[in-house]
Amino acid sequence: MEMDLQIKVAQAVHVLNHDIESCNRVAANQWLVQFQQTDAAWEVATSILTSDRHTFLADFEVEFFAAQILKRKIQNEGFYLQSAVKDALLNALLMAAKGYSSGPPQLLTQICLALSALILRAVEHGKPVEKLFYSLQNLQSEDDGNVAVLEMLTVLPEELIDTQASDCNISSAHRSQYGQELLSHTPMVLEFLLQQSEKSFDGGVQLHERNRKIMRCLLSWVRAGCFSEIPQGSLPAHPLLNYVFNSLQVPSSFDLAIEVLVELVSRHEGLPQVLLSRVHFLGEALLLPALTDRNEKVIGGLACLMSEIGQAAPSLIVEASSDALVLADALLSCVAYPSENWEIADSTLQFWSSLASYILGLDVDIAKNKKHVEEMFFSVFSALLDALLLRAQVDDSTFNDDGMPDLPDGLVQFRMNLVELLVDICHLLQSATFIQKIFFGGWASANLCIPWKEVETKLFALNVVSEVVLQEGQAFDFSVIMQLVTMLSTRHSDELKGFKHIVYRSLADVIGSYSKWISSLQTNARPLLLFLAAGISDSLSSNACASALRKICEDASAVIDEPSNLEILMWIGEALEKRRLPLEDEEEIVSAISLILGSVSNRELKNNLLARLLSSSYEAIGKLVSFGFSRAQLPLFLPYGFSFLAMFFAICSLKIDIEMTLQGCIFLSIDGDNHQSLVQNPATYTQILSSATRGLYRMGTVFSHLTVPLPTDSAADNPIYALLRVFWPMLEKLFRSGHMENGNISTAACRALSLAIQSSGQHFLTLLPQVLDCLSTNFLSFQSHECYIRTGKSLVL
């Protein structure tokens, strides 16, 4: 019966891996999944692994599957096995490990993983770890036994390290007991590894393969904390440490040696000082040849190790000993290495940040010593800034892309990690020196070929340190920035392509960060507005330009409040409906324009500009709630092109009752609900809904930035009240329509109404009954829309 099941398992595995018919593979998989759940799977899998390998069932795929079955069943059910069953299974797995010690390494690993899982789940029964080590000692004396022992010792600590894969059935007490038992055998394990490291060959296994196995095993035990079991003073002189250090010079084991040393440095306080004294050798024997040969594996590994050494003991580095300066110089060469990606430079950033933070955080009571340290490392961080500015540049493929490129993901991540370090460097060098290094070389000269890669990177750095520069008050000459503004904004759209879109965005970021300083001159206002207006229409730079526009308008409203500048703002605002920018960008732009319009002292001009700004919003909302009208229906006394909102503001200025005028204008009366006719054309309806939503958001943003009138102010003199009286009939119709079922529309409409309520003060009271009626009706119809409750709350407040 058991033999029949073994044959069926072998056949199913073969079908699963090789049959060309997918239905057969699915059926085989289902049968194998069900088989794994049975009790018979224990005996069948054990028999496959312990039987004579010369039988017809001997097949790697079948044996590998059997090992996986045992591992999974032990992990899922092993906790409930009887003690005698566990002992028998332990002996069977040890026999299998010995049998496959010279076989496929993946199969031996699976068997050892099953053994490790079994030992953990047998902790409560005597001392299973001790029994296992006794068995391993016996296994060492057999042919190829050391290979199996090495693999077993490698995977044993993984149950302690891999906490994410921990079995919830294993209590922390059992896991702790397992760890204590395991680490109690540390001296025996280290002695075994040392013996293996001193052998030249072992049963035909090649030297480099054996070295890698030894390093993998040692790494596993280091991560489990094995060296905490030996006297700390003995670690620097331990023979295995020399073995690991020497393995750095062996290409096949270099990467594992780096991992072991990094783990040791991060865990043992005395080790960084020991390894710091060996950095000179690492630089001469390994780093310099690797830089010459462009061996990025070695460069990256050494950068990681040396960074870890310095980061673990910054107090040693700030002493500026010869070894410390050698380490700093070596890491500078790693940062400056021209790799195709940014991983090597990125791996050093934590060290540089920790060193800079340590220097900046030195006790103020020893200010003289702090100043001495800063002076000692001034040249180091100055050179580091040069190297970072070089490495933070885009790659050639991005630079030469004539389409709409963006920064590579690797560079984006590198720059994000670089921000804190650049700020610290600016503190250390002082902003004046930092700015001087940024502008060194006159890179915006019209007479020179502009190094755009360098310019864009320096703009990034200038933006990152803006807060430090502004705090220190070290103003600088913005003529270079304005030259770039002029150059980029006056170029024809055909010339402004490829990488220059990224430069445009970075320049807009700088303008936004230094808006208070850069816009203080009256002559800068118009070029800046033209630059931002052009950038807003570009998808890559629209967000940066919109944000910069808001900051410019916040910081320099008095400078921008000029007729020609107002016209540029109107051009930007009137084009929003066509540009279809993200809502957050539109809000930035409308906020900026509203801030400036709110400061316009001429009431008639202010009303006219507000009307122009909101004209597209009125039309977009009107399309949704009515059939609209033609311009031919406008009264003859209005100039051609004068919007209907402008008409209403003209009416306000003439002190004519708006409500009577609305009633008399038949072309503005809102027709019956055309909701059904619109939804019959989904594409058109979706477009109209989107436009109306944007219009409502723009309207609400304008309301939020206009000055709240005093109770004593005349309603006829206030633009907020005029706007509200114009928009309310249309809003009321919208609130009572079936369009409010749409979540985006209802949210935008409620937001606009809430902001109008908050901005209009007591003048809103006349509309209060209608508003309450609309809100209550909609709340009953669409109770899932929380926006009605928020709007009602604004009425109460």
Secondary-structure topology with pairs:
Elements lengths: L1 H17 L3 H15 L3 H11 L9 H18 L5 H17 L5 H16 L7 H13 L4 H11 L2 H4 L10 H12 L2 H12 L9 H18 L14 H9 L6 H14 L3 H6 L2 H15 L2 H17 L1 H4 L4 H15 L6 H18 L6 H10 L1 H14 L4 H4 L9 H21 L1 H9 L12 H13 L1 H7 L6 H11 L10 H14 L1 H4 L3 H15 L5 H14 L1 H4 L2 H12 L1 H4 L3 H16 L4 H23 L18 H10 L4 H7 L10 H5 L2 H24 L13 H17 L7 H18 L7 H14 L5 H10 L1
Describe this structure in words.
The protein is mainly alpha-helical and 797 residues long. Helices cover 71% and strands 0% of the residues. The protein is built from 45 helices and no strands. Helix 16 (279-293) packs antiparallel against helix 17 and helix 37 (603-625) packs across helix 38 (644-653). Mean pLDDT is 81; it is low at 627-673.
Percentage of residues in strands: under 5%
Q: Rg from C-alpha positions?
A: 37 Å
Number of strands: 0
Question: Can you give the helix content as a percent range?
Answer: over 70%
Principal-axes shape call: globular
List segments where confidence is low: pLDDT < 50 over at least 5 consecutive residues.
Answer: 627-673
Total helical segments:
45
Mean pLDDT: 81
Query: What's the N-to-C terminus distance?
Result: 82 Å
- Structural class from helices and strands? mainly alpha
The major pleated sheet works out as: none
